[in-house]
Amino acid sequence: MTRRLPSAPPLLPGLDYVRPLGSGGFADVFLYQQDMPRRSVAVKVLPSDERDPDLLRMFNAEADVLARLSAHPAIVTVYQAGISADGRPYIVMEYCPGSLSQRYRLERMPVPEVMTIAVRLAGALESAHRAGLIHRDIKPSNILLTTFGAAVLADFGISSPLLRDSAGDVVAMSIPWTAPEVLAEHTGGTIASEVWSMGATMYSLLAGHSPFERLEKGQNTRDLMRRRIARATLVPVPRTDVPDALQSVLATAMARDPDARYASAQAFGDAVRAVQRSEGLAPTPLEVPAEEWLPASEYIDFSDTVARGPVRSRLEHAARRPRPAPETAVRQRDEDTSLATPSPRRPVGPWMIGGIAALALLGGAIAAAAAGWWPW
User: Fold this and answer.
1) Backbone angles phi, psi at 270, to 5 degrees
2) For 68, left (φ over 0), alpha (ψ -120 to 50), or beta?
3) In this structure, are residues 289 and 130 in contact, taking their beta carbons and an 8 Å threshold?
């Protein structure tokens, strides 16, 4: 299969192109410098000649899903999305300089770090599941590292509604980290299959290879991997520093029977936190959204194939009054002035009351003199 050449970076307002970051099956990612506020951002762009409605649907869904979930500290943040001047949809996201794509194959990752990543990932997926969404492509390369070294989940391009459990809805899959029932096309993805993928991803980070991968050349074709995932017995991680309790957590998460796995991503994260405690480590916070957040989240249309770009903001106003004639305007201003709120009265002190009484007596005396009558 011929590999697609990356497309040219688009001209985007307020962003200066820096360099390419990578190219995937249907999109390219570039590094840009944002002018205001000043920061580095990653921009994911569809190729200029791409008109496939399915890809546009996936692209729109990813932008909407990330906008809904990216407030979570373990999910990559999206800043904006739109259509470039040459008609290409793009998403502006948080720039994450690191990834676990190859690191686990090149070095022996510490067990405490892997457990921390597992709990963060569990919190991110539990949040997505509570919002009615599943990721469907959990694997090491979709775990990025922020500039602060924190692991975040990315690439929601093939996510889907949790309630739409359709076997024919499989868009793409990464076989080494895909649950047996999804490979068999019995389902397009469930919470149980997400738990399996979490276990397979954590196994990979510890072992340096995916769970059913063989070191012999030619033993990892798609068909052989499918068969091993469907029928082979899971071998424990070949490391003496991996606690037996953690080996047990991975085995439960990757049970062949979906009903034998952890019932939720949170349950998987809690099991890993229990291992952390047993090893004398501070448990990693498992962050999930507050209950009041769920009703406020908006519906995501996964069938949207429209290229959505910036639109002019508009506010609905009541009908405006016609501009009055000059003399009417003057009269209206006078009326408005007369109806203005009066200034607050100054408090009346005793000396003012006495002065008013004296003036009243003086006025009475003057009136009596004028009438020719004196009281004495």
Assistant:
1) -65, -35
2) alpha
3) yes
88 is catalytic: no
Distance CA 199, CA 139 (A): 10
Instruction: Encode pLDDT of 326-359 as tens digits.
Output: 554 445 544 444 444 444 555 555 555 555 555 5
Residue 341 has a pLDDT of 47
Is 28 within 8 Å of 123 (Cβ atoms)? no
How far apart are alpha carbons 125 and 134 in whole angstroms? 8
User: CA–CA separation, 348 vs 52, rounded Å?
Assistant: 82
Backbone angles phi, psi at 60, to 5 degrees: -60, -40
Residues in the chain with pLDDT values less than 70 = 1-4, 24-25, 48-52, 62, 157-173, 292-376
First to last CA, the chain: 129
Q: What is the pLDDT of residue 316?
A: 53
Assigned token pair, 337: 């002035």
Q: Where are the beta strands (DSSP E) in 24-88?
A: 28-34, 39-45, 78-83
Residues with Cβ < 8 Å from 98, sequence gap 6 or more? 144, 145, 146, 149
| CA–CA distance, 170 with 178 (Å, rounded to integer) | 11
User: Residues 197, 202, 207, 211: what is their CA dihedral angle, to the nearest 10 degrees?
Assistant: -10
Burial class (CB in 10 A: 0-12, 13-18, 19+), 28: buried
The pLDDT assigned to 106 comes to 95
> How many Cα atoms occupy the beta-carbon half-sphere of 79 within 13 Å?
16
DSSP secondary structure letters along 134-150 = E----SGGGEEE-TTS-
Distance CA 298, CA 148 (A): 30
Domains and CATH numbers, the chain: 9-95 (3.30.200.20), 96-292 (1.10.510.10)
* Residue 339: predicted pLDDT: 42
Q: How far apart are CA 72 and CA 170, in angstroms?
A: 26
- Write down the pTM of the prediction: 0.73
Active-site residue, from 130, 136, 228, 261? 136
Whole-number pLDDT of residue 46: 82
